[in-house]
């Protein structure tokens, strides 16, 4: 039985969905009776050019920061270490280091970083799977990591190195994916299917939302892969106003759009209140999303979702039942679907009620925490079996500074 868990997370510069999931799971595990400690590093410390170069050079193996993780393990003595994000300050080699000292590990695959330098399986606004079965160095040619040649080379090298070392096949006891679609992509890329377990993001229950006093709402980072440019075109075409909560590089486009109203960055409490009051939220992504927390929050509040018919979104939102689908990247089709949702409040309310039932059945905190603890138990048992079978075998060389 799992009693002590160390969570490891490399936080991004801007607080996002992964950070929300880490906080939610930490709180849920505590409520389930586990003793939990969070080890975190933040990309906000990467400020100078030398910091960026250091992060690039240690993307494959960051012995100094891995040493800090091992220090935390020795002090806390957890039954298991659950790693959420290792990029770029911790690196995948943390799994081999933990295995070397006999600690089971679980890795949540929040995005496609372990197989794609850009982490999104998306290029030029369309899905791209070339690196799933072919060389990850294609990412260098297309500058898939933030448009940077050197950055793409560093991350592609990390992907290639850990594929060659067998990090994902040898040193991780269990992986967590959020949807079956995600699972299919990782299996296609060569990750061991028997170790990949499905566990959606959960959320504590605030109950269904109040009367719908707002229209359509977008919540998220303002980027092209999130489909913000498509949303702007669709809102103008349909003549509807869409409130936008979030910030990002497409902020000027949002502020210039006649159909979008920018509300900027808001607190989590304000965001959840806005979602609960909306007729529907819009998720017009053009990349393979995982399970965005905004969708879980919407379903929890009984708010239906308009989403692109792509990847996991097509799986988690049932068209006409818990929301509506639109063709990815198609502003005309998105405008049509927005019209349909706003033009039939009875159907919108019915879809919201179905979304709430989906949340209660599959995404409640009790359900997802039970699944998480079962995965932890599997990881510990698998680790013990593997360790006994490979007694005396050496893990990859790791020098700790």
Brief synopsis:
The chain has 401 residues and is α/β, with parallel strands linked by helices. The protein has 17 helices and 14 strands.
Sequence-ordered SSE layout with sheet pairings:
Blueprint: E1 4-11, H1 17-31, E2 35-42, H2 49-57, H3 63-76, E3 80-85, H4 94-100, E4 105-108, E5 122-123, E6 126-127, H5 130-133, H6 138-141, H7 149-165, H8 167-170, E7 174-177, H9 180-188, E8 196-198, E9 216-219, H10 228-238, E10 242-245, H11 251-256, E11 260-264, H12 268-277, E12 280-283, H13 293-301, E13 305-308, H14 311-316, E14 323-326, H15 331-343, H16 345-363, H17 365-389
Parallel strand pairs: 1-2, 1-3, 3-4, 4-7, 7-8, 9-10, 9-12, 10-11, 12-13, 13-14
Antiparallel strand pairs: 5-6
Helix pairs in contact: 10-15, 13-16, 16-17
Q: Helical region count?
A: 17
Helix content: 40-55%
What does the overall shape look like? Answer: globular
Mean pLDDT: 94
Give the beta-strand count.
14
Contiguous low-pLDDT stretches (5 residues minimum) are none
Range of strand content: 15-25%
Q: Major sheet: size, sense and barrel closure?
A: 6 strands, parallel
Radius of gyration: 21 Å
CA distance, first residue to last residue: 34 Å
- Secondary-structure content class: alpha/beta
Give, in spatial order, the strands making up the sheet with the most strands.
2-1-3-4-7-8
């Amino acid at each position: 039985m799992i009693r002590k868990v160390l969570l490891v997370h490399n936080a991004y510069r801007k607080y996002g969905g992964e950070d929300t999931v880490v906080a939610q799971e930490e709180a849920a595990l505590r409520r389930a009776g586990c003793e939990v400690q969070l080890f975190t590093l933040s990309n906000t410390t990467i400020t100078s050019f030398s910091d960026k170069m250091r992060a690039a050079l240690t993307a494959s193996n960051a012995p100094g920061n891995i040493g800090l993780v091992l220090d935390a393990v020795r002090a806390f003595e957890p039954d298991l270490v659950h790693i959420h994000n290792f990029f770029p300050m911790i690196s995948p080699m943390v799994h081999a280091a933990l295995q070397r000292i006999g600690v089971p590990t679980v890795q949540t695959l929040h995005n496609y970083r372990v197989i794609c330098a850009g982490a999104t399986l998306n290029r030029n606004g369309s899905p791209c799977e070339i690196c799933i079965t072919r060389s990850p160095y294609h990412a260098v040619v297309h500058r898939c990591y933030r448009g940077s040649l050197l950055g793409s080379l560093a991350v592609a090298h990390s992907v290639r190195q850990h594929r060659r070392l067998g990090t994902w096949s040898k040193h991780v006891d269990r992986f967590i994916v959020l949807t079956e679609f995600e699972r299919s992509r990782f299996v296609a890329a060569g990750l061991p299917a028997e170790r990949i377990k499905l566990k959606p993001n959960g959320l504590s229950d605030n109950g269904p939302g109040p009367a719908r006093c707002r229209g359509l709402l977008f919540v998220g980072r303002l980027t092209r892969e999130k489909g913000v440019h498509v949303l702007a075109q669709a809102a103008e075409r349909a003549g509807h106003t869409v409130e936008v909560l979030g910030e990002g590089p497409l902020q000027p486009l949002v502020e210039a759009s006649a159909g979008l109203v920018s509300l900027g960055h808001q607190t989590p409490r304000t965001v959840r209140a806005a979602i609960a009051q909306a007729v529907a939220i819009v998720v017009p992504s053009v990349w393979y999303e995982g399970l965005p927390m905004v969708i879980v929050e919407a379903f929890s509040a009984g708010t239906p979702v308009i989403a692109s018919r792509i990847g996991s979104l097509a799986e988690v939102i049932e068209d006409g039942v818990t929301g509506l689908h639109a063709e990815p990247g198609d502003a005309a089709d998105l405008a049509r679907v927005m019209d349909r949702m706003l033009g039939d409040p009875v159907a919108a309310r019915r879809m919201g009620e179905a979304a709430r039932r989906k949340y209660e059945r599959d995404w409640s905190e009790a359900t997802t925490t039970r699944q998480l603890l079962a995965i932890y138990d599997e990881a510990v048992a698998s680790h013990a079996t593997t360790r006994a079978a490979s007694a005396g075998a050496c893990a990859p060389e790791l020098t700790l500074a």
